[in-house]
Amino acid sequence: MTDQELLDLAARCGFDHVGPMNVEVMRFEPAVRDMCAADRCRSYGRCWTCPPGCGTLEEISARAAAYRRGVLLQSTGQMEDDFDVEAMMDTERLQKERFRAFVDRVREEYPNCLPMSSGACSVCPACTYPDAPCRFPHLAIPSMEAYGLLVSDVCLRSGLKYNYGPGTISFTSCILFEKEREQNAEP
């Protein structure tokens, strides 16, 4: 798929904002993982897709660094005020639905792609971590933050806005594809 075909697919999936991701500017920050450890989202140590279950920063950053192309995908919602939890939750739900549809389609062409969601995994009502393996590893997707990526920085360095003004909330996901080996492989 060309970059334009991917962007067109993203638009068909309903994303409000999309753009190519500059994979060369990915910085895997320990400080972002430290924010995860503060457990404000209540998923740290409770989910296979969040730290520490998703792997060390070194392990997952090495996995992500092998990719040569990426796409950023955003859903933006309007809030009545800064405390409009309903709009926040609706926008997050839409982002996850759109992202799942996009990932399913991209995996048809790039089965080894690396999707990174916004927020913690929500596939199961209760994760099996750490007592049993993930029930749906093909559906479970770590977040950009789990990879140590500061989402606002990734957006800025890729030329995509992160903040769309007062009264808005945005959720950002990305998908990496085309590993060096895949890119150079013969058909």
The count of DSSP E runs of length 2 or more, i.e. the number of strands, is: 4
Largest sheet: 4 strands, antiparallel
* N/C terminus separation: 15 Å
Question: What best-fitting shape do the alpha-carbon axes yield?
Answer: globular
Strand order across the largest sheet: 1-2-4-3
Average predicted local confidence, pLDDT: 92
The percent range for strand residues is 15-25%
SSE string, helices as H and strands as E: HEHHEHEHEH
Radius of gyration: 16 Å
Low-confidence stretches are 183-187
Total number of helical segments?
6
Instruction: Briefly note the structural class of the backbone.
Output: alpha+beta
Give helix % range: 25-40%
Description:
The chain is an alpha+beta fold. The protein has helices spanning 3-12, 30-37, 57-65, 85-109, 151-158, 180-184, and strands at residues 17-20, 67-78, 114-116, 168-179. It has a four-stranded antiparallel beta sheet, sandwiched between helices. It starts with a helix and ends with a helix.
Briefly summarize what is shown.
By secondary structure, the protein is α+β, with helices and mostly antiparallel strands. The protein has helices spanning 3-12, 30-37, 57-65, 85-109, 151-158, 180-184, and strands at 17-20, 67-78, 114-116, 168-179. 34% of the residues are buried.
Show the helix and strand layout:
Layout: H1 3-12, E1 17-20, H2 30-37, H3 57-65, E2 67-78, H4 85-109, E3 114-116, H5 151-158, E4 168-179, H6 180-184
Antiparallel strand pairs: 1-2, 2-4, 3-4
Summary keywords:
187 residues, alpha+beta, 4-stranded antiparallel beta sheet, 6 helices, 35% helix, disordered C terminus
